[in-house]
Amino acid sequence: MLKKLKILMVSPECVPFAKTGGLGDCVASLSLHLAKLGHDVRIAMPLYTEIALPKSTIANPEPMIVNLGYGTEYAKLWEHRNENLITYFIEFNRYFGRDGIYSGCYGDHCDNPERFAFMCRSALDLCYFKNWLPDLIHCHDWTTGLIPVYLCTTERNLPLGRTGSVFTIHNIQHHGLAPKSILKFSGIPDHVFRPDGVEAVGMVNMMKAGIYFSKKLTTVSHCYSKEIQTPNFGFGLENVLKFKAGDLIGICNGIDISNWNPETDRLIPANYSAGNMTGKLACKRELQKTFGLEQNDAIPIFCVVSRLAEQKGLDLLANILHRVINHMAVQFVVLGNGEFWLESRLSELASIYNSKIGTFIGFDEKLSHLVLAGSDLLVIPSRFEPCGLTQMYAMRYGTLPLAHSTGGLSDTIENYDKSTNAGTGFLFSNLSHDALYNTLGWACATYYDDKINFNAMRYRAMQKDFSWKCSAEKYIEVYHWAMEI
Ligand code: ADP
C-alpha cells in the first residue's frame, strides 16, 4: 500500500471561497477527495476582500514573516478547518485587499505578477512557520509557477528542497508575463532567466517557469495534454511542452458529485433522478419563469453557463442565433459574464426575442444549478477546452451537451450514434458557424422526432461516473512519481 502523503495545494481559487471558473471547483473537490482517502491535505490561498471567513471554523490569525528578495513583509495567516481539510488564508492587504481575484473595474490588476509571487513565497514560508513540511506541493496554473523555481533554487539546500512538485495546467492561454525585475522582487536568482528556464521573449513567463521547473506536469484532460504540444493550442509554449512530454500526463477532472446531484440539490425547485424525471419538468417551468420565457413544456431549452470569453466560442453562437430562432422551435437561456461586447450582443438578442431568449449577465452559482437542471441541452462551442466542468454537471442533470469536439469535451462526451443507440451528447469537429448551426438542428430534430432515443441518451448521461475516484488515484501515482526524483 502506498504511504499517506502530506500535500500542499497552492491555488488562487478554491470553492466555496473564491471562484472564477473550473480551477476553483477542481482544487476544492480534488483536495476533499484526497483528504477523505486519509492524506494530510492543506490548501494555501490569498484572503481576498470578498472572502467572509466562517467564525466557527477559523482560528485567530498569526503574524507570519514572508521572505521576499528585497526584505521581509508581515502577513497574517488564518487557518480554517473543514472535516479533515485545512485551508490557510494569507492576508496581505496591499495585494489582496481589493475587489476581484485577477481584475477589477479597470481590467487586470497591473501588479498581478507581484501579487502572485507573494502568494508563492508565502505558501513556502508558511510550511516553515507551521513546521509542516509537505512531501509534495501541487501547483495550479501560472500564478503558482514560481513555486517549482523556488524549490529548485533558493530552497535547494533547505528542508523544502526535498519536497516534490506537480504543476497542473488548467489553461495554457494565460502566461503571467512579468519584467525580469520580478526575480529580484521574489528573491529568485537571476541565472534562471534564460530560454531553457523562465525567460520568454525577454520577459519572465510564470507559466513556463512552472512547466520547466516542476518535477511532473499534468493537464486536466488527456486530449488537452496532446493538443497543447501543437502550435494551434500551445500558445507559443508547445516546444517547451514537447521537451517536457515525458513528464506530462493528462488526468481528467472529476466533479463534486454530492454538490452536483439532482436527487438532493437544494438549489433547484424539485429533485429528480434518472429513474424518475418528473422533477425536471418543474425545474424547466421555473427556469422559463425566471428568464421571462414563454411557458411551454414541449419546447427544448438550450442553455449556456460560461465565462463569456473568446475561448468559449460563444461569438459564433451569437452570430447564428437569429437564424436558429427563425428556423427552429427552441428557447435559449444564457448565464454568463465576461467580455463586454459579447454581454451586450447577447442581451440585445434577448431583448429582440424576449419570449425565446433569456440572459442573465453575471456570475450566480445558485442560478447555474437551476439553468443546468431546467434545460434540455447545454451548448459549448469552445475553441479549446482544457477539461470543462459544465458538460459533466449537465450530464448528471440529464441535460445533454452539444459541443465542439476538443480537449476535455471530447474526452468526456460520447457522440450520439443512432445506429448503435450510443452516446451522451452531440459533438462536431470543425468549428464553424455552419457546423454549430447544423448540430443545433440535429439535436433539435432528435428532441422532437426521436424522443425515445433522446430520453435514452439522457438516461445514459445521468449514469456516467464523473466522480474523483479514478482521477484522484492517478494523481496519487503522479505525486509518488514526482517524489522519486
Ligand atoms: P472555465 O474554467 O474555463 O471557466 P469550466 O467549465 O471548467 O470552464 O468551469 C466553469 C465553472 O464556472 C463551472 O462550475 C460553471 O458552472 C461555472 N460558471 C461559469 N460561468 C458562470 C456564471 N456566470 N455563473 C455561475 N457559474 C458559472
The parts where pLDDT drops under 50 for at least 5 residues are none
CATH fold naming of the largest domain: Rossmann fold
Q: What bound compounds does this protein have?
A: adenosine-5'-diphosphate
User: How many DSSP H or I helices?
Assistant: 17
CATH-wise, what's the superfamily of the largest domain?
Glycogen Phosphorylase B
Can you describe this structure?
This protein is α/β, with parallel strands linked by helices. Strands 3-4-5-2-1-8-9-13-14 form a nine-stranded mixed sheet, with helices on both faces. β6 and β7 form a beta hairpin. The radius of gyration is 23 Å and the shape is globular. The protein starts with 5 loop residues before the first strand and ends with a helix. The structure holds adenosine-5'-diphosphate. Adenosine-5'-diphosphate (ADP) binds next to α1, β15, β16 and α12.
Write a brief caption for the model.
The chain contains 17 helices and 20 strands. It has 485 residues and is α/β, with parallel strands linked by helices. The protein has two domains: 266 residues, Rossmann fold, CATH 3.40.50; 186 residues, Rossmann fold.
Helices and strands in order, then pairings?
Blueprint lengths: L5 E5 L11 H15 L3 E7 L11 E11 L2 E12 L2 E7 L1 H4 L6 E2 L2 E2 L3 H18 L6 E5 L5 H7 L11 E6 L7 E2 L2 H6 L12 E2 L2 E3 H8 L2 E4 L2 H6 L10 H6 L4 E3 L27 H13 L10 E8 L5 H14 L3 E8 L1 H13 L4 E5 L3 H10 L2 E4 L9 H7 L3 E5 L2 H6 L13 E3 L4 H17 L1 H13 L5 H15 L2
Helix pairs in contact: 4-6, 9-12, 10-11, 10-15, 15-16
The structure holds adenosine-5'-diphosphate.
